[in-house]
Amino acid sequence: MALITGFERIVQRDEPLAMHTWFQLGGPAEYFAEPDDVDQLIALVKRCHEEGVPVRLLGRGSNVLVRDEGVPGLVLRLSAPAFCKIEVQGRSITAGGGAKLGRVITTAVHRGLAGLEMLIGIPGTLGGALHGNAGTHGGDVGQWTTRATVITHTGEVSQHGHDELVFEYRQSSLDELVILEAGFQLEEEDPRELARRMQKQWIVKKAAQPMGHQCAGCVFKNPRGTSAGESIEEAGLKGTRVGGAVVSDRHANFIVAEPECTSQDVLRLIELVCGQVHDRLGIELERELEVW
Ligand SMILES: Cc1cc2nc3c(=O)[nH]c(=O)nc-3n(C[C@H](O)[C@H](O)[C@H](O)COP(=O)(O)OP(=O)(O)OC[C@H]3O[C@@H](n4cnc5c(N)ncnc54)[C@H](O)[C@@H]3O)c2cc1C
Known about the structure:
four-stranded mixed sheet; 6 helices; binds flavin-adenine dinucleotide; Uridine Diphospho-n-acetylenolpyruvylglucosamine Reductase, domain 1; Uridine Diphospho-n-acetylenolpyruvylglucosamine Reductase, domain 2; single chain; five-stranded antiparallel sheet; 3 domains; alpha+beta; Uridine Diphospho-n-acetylenolpyruvylglucosamine Reductase, domain 3
């Protein structure tokens, strides 16, 4: 197969994606690769473009539900050290798209740089966070982002400065194939005070999530003026089940996947919740979780 020629060492066939996502559900990727460095990544993206093979970028899979039938084309992950670097210079931080968001935050806090600490407890990578402008009531990742380097679907590298970046609620203008690196400008503050704030936020966040959360996903965006979790709870849907998929008793905006759960169960439960919330409260829920 022309796609693999020259990339035999890094491209796997029929890689199960369940183990790469928080839901731990779904079928395989037709092709899967974790490139060693940027040159290899660009070469692979260019090859896919030439061969007409669709490509997707997977972070830590905390906002993705993979369908049971799997994903055609190539799935890429930026797990190699080359994509996970974090550098601090004065009040600026530069980090790779594959770096864990939590590591970027703790690095900033230890260096006495404030802003990102309110995002502690959001799972996933920096790239995933920037793609969907991840955030909490305390703010979002976009408000501290000053620049980004991306790779397009044709394999071109391009830079976006502060003026070109647009971040809105769970949306960003960074919709190219790969967010390679991003820069943040933060504010100086006492590291001990920052660490205290981060720990407090961590406790609040963890207390609101389902236990055994490795098999759970945060599903809906908050509708304007209200919270998705509260709406689902008000509609009386906590604990509702389809097959092995259950609306969490702890936080109604989470779906927990029990053993034997399939992606189809989760999709049917999402549909049921949307329909019931609409019928009972007149609220239109929009999915935050991506379905691949
Ligand atoms: C327990 C739990 C709690 C959560 N809490 C929150 C919360 O408080 N706030 C919140 O906003 N979200 C929350 N989420 C959702 C999720 O954690 C975020 O959306 C997260 O930022 C996704 O990062 P990821 O690396 O897992 O991305 P993935 O789920 O792997 O991918 C999500 C999207 O980002 C794209 N993407 C990933 N990496 C890159 C990259 N390097 N370049 C280009 N595109 C990329 C993917 O293609 C995909 O379209 C929660 C999820 C769970 C399971």
